[in-house]
Every structure is written in structure tokens, then in C-alpha cells.
Write a structure and sequence with these properties.
Number of helices: 14
Strand order of the largest sheet: 3-10-11-17-14-13-12
Oligomer: single chain
CATH class of the largest domain: Alpha Beta
CATH architecture of the largest domain: 2-Layer Sandwich
Distance between the termini: 36 Å
Strand content: 25-35%
Helix content: 25-40%
Bound molecules: adenosine-5'-triphosphate
Number of domains: 2
Shape: globular
Structural class: alpha+beta
Number of strands: 24
CATH topology of the largest domain: BirA Bifunctional Protein, domain 2
Amino acid sequence: MNVNKMEKIVALCKRRGFIYPGSEIYGGLTGTWDYGPLGALLKKNIKDQWWKAMVQLRDDVVGVDAAIMMNSTVWERSGHLEAFTDPLVECKICHQRFRADKKQDLEMHEKTHKENLPAGRQVEWTAPQKFNLLVKAYLGIIEGQQSEIFLRGEITQGAFVNFENVVSSTRVKIPFGVAQIGKAFRNEITPGNFIFRSREFEQMELEFFIKPTEAEGDKWFEYWKNERINWYQALGIKKEKLRFRKHRDDERAHYAKFAEDIEYEAPFGWSEFEGIHNRGDWDLSRHGLSYVDDDGKKFTPWVIEASGGIDRSLLFFLLDAYHEEEKRVVLKLHPKLAPYKVAVFPLLANKENLVSEARKIYQTLQQDMMVAWDDRGNIGKRYFAQDEAGTPFCVTVDFQSLEDKTVTIRDRDTAKQERVEIAKLSKYLLDKLQ
Ligand code: ATP
């Protein structure tokens, strides 16, 4: 396992303000992470790109934003109260708990006891128990009479409970999709691998409603598999680092007829970050919902789902973009995802005319994009910092700028520089950021 690379990413995320441990000043809260100034921008850019591809550019998908807290009957009907479980085992020596289906984690734990066990003896585990992942909360104002609710374990149900609302309030006709982005919560047995498995995370999901036949199911399943893997590649993830993996019968979620994951080759092994599921009519029939087509025919649509994790994809975008070169560390993030698109520097911080010219450029560019400002240290150090932040371009205002109204633009990936007229700077950058 290339743990080293993960450690470097975690350190870079803290150093540059991408991601911090949750509640850090009070010793943290296991399985939670806070996104800092750069991380919040990167996350927003991923979400914006997803929304653009899945909603804005399509005629057949609409977006919703459902409540996190839902009537508990939703979770009973969806099957989550009964079946949203992971198998939990406990080490009989130290009582630490793990997921029985994560063999690698069990083996790693067994190694920690090896030295203290008599020869020939092995770590013993308790029999696996079903552990429900839903996080409970209590609502109401009278102590003792509060109602128990569940923070949503998947954002999916918000699309189903609003199925009739969406059909009656918009012009969608089957086949059509409902897209949503939002937080989900799971009482994970073993949160870990940085933001890969946390207890609070964000999902980007499409629920695509189709006619209930095997042929339609297969057609749309293949369609969405390809759409989704192409999306990640178009945003720069290397093809050879991506693969599909079919779910085995014993690992499929309770709602899925058929499922495949999109996996990334992370330093800790091939890992899921989006699931494509054929949910059949599981959800709509459990909620007692149906659809009437233009000919008056009533049926229960099937659902093809593309359920991606924003935090996991963010981690994989970072890992994929991370490059160590001779004298620098550079995040070669796709320009559409980069937190800052450009950084503006006055060559010298103590020359009033350079600073005011640079400031003007900075404020003009801010109208169109996120711009970083840096006037500390020397230019080399500023480049170094922006490379680690993944900023695709750096603009320097120097003495020549005051005379001929041009600036130097330095490209993050090639480190090459060219001079561009200040008047043409916005257009130059907007073209390059496409
Ligand atoms: P795993 O098998 O890793 O627990 P899952 O199959 O339960 O994941 P899904 O229920 O299919 O995951 O959720 C869809 C997506 O939501 C996942 O592909 C992942 O990107 C994201 N996700 C799920 N659980 C977590 C988590 N604990 N932390 C971060 N992201 C998560």
C-alpha cells in the first residue's frame, strides 16, 4: 500500500487549507472533516460541474433539494430500518470493532496482536452481527415526548418521496431523471482513509425513471455507466486509474437488482466512489407510487441510479492531480476544478505603482473567476505555493507592465511564461479555462 502518498496528500490538504480534521481544537470527532477555503472551492467546483452535466445540459433531468430530516416512515418503507446494515465483528482481545466484509482491515488488525500471542494462536473474532448505519436524532420541544428521526443515510429517498410532486409540477415524461446533491450520514463502523469513509459526507445522485422492462433497464444502465465514467475522464482522471466492478450477489444493497461500481486505483487499493444501480421498482412500489403515461396506462417505473460521493471523488481528483517534480509539488487539477483559476502578484510588495496596477488587474479578474492575491516573499515562493494549490495560472505585474501594459503569465503545468496585454487578460484566461 502506498501509504506515503496518502500521508503527503493529508499533509498538503492541511497545509494549504483544503481539509482539516473536524472539531480539531477539541480533539476532533471521529469520521468528520472540515473543508477549508481551498477545499470548499474545489468541492463547489465538482458540484457545479456535476450539476451542469446532469441538469443544465439535459432536457430529461430536473434537480431537487430535499430535506435532510424526513418522516421516519420513509426509512421503514425504503427498507433501511431493517436492511441498511454492515456486518460487525469484535476482536476478542482488545474489543475493537470492524466490518467483517473488509478482510484487509481484519488482517491488518490481526498483525497488531501477533507479537503478544503464544505461538500458533490466532486472533479470535466474535460472530458477525448486523449493525444498522442510520444515525438517530430527536425532534420536538417536550423532553420525553420527542420523536426519533434518522438523518438520511442516502439522499436518494428525497427523489422518491417527491416523485409525484415532480411529475405534476413539471413537464417531465418517462424516461426522466431527478438529480440531487446533499449531505448523508452513516454511523460507519470503521471510518478511515481520510475523507474516503466518513460519518458525514456528501452525495451527488441521479435517479432515472424508466419503463419497467429488462430491456429498458439494461439499456439505461449501460448508458449511465458510460456517461458517468466519461464525466470523470473529461475532468482529468486518468483512464487507467478507473474501472468498473460488478457487485457480487452477497454484497448488493437490499434495493438493487443489479449494481456496478466505478472504482479508482487509490494508494489503499481499488476503491468505489460511484455506484450505478438498477433499483428496479423497489422504491416506488414500497412507497406505493406509480406513473400514468400519455395513453392512460398505469405502471410502477423502474429506477436506474448513479450515486457518487463528492468527498471520495474529491480525494481521487486530488490523488490523481498530485505530482512531485524535481523542485516542486504540483496539483495538476483540471482548470474547471482548480480552486483559484489565477493568482496575481506585484513583483515587489513595496513599490506602490506595481501594487496598485496589480490590484486593479486582480479586481477586474475577480468579476469572472476566483483570483488569489499574493505579495509575500519572492516570486519563486509564490509560484511554489500556487503550484501546491493547483492554480493553473500566475500573473506577475513588473516594471515593464507599467510601460507597455503587458504582464507575465506563467502556466502551472509547463512552468512556461509568456507576456499578454492587460486588456486581453480576461479573455485569454477564460479561453484557457474551458
Ligand atoms: P461502501 O461499500 O464503501 O461502504 P456503499 O456501497 O455503501 O459504500 P453507496 O451506498 O452505494 O456506498 O453510496 C454511494 C456513494 O456514496 C459511494 O460510492 C461513495 O462515493 C459515497 N459514500 C458512501 N458511504 C460513504 C462514506 N462513509 N464516506 C464517504 N462517502 C461515502
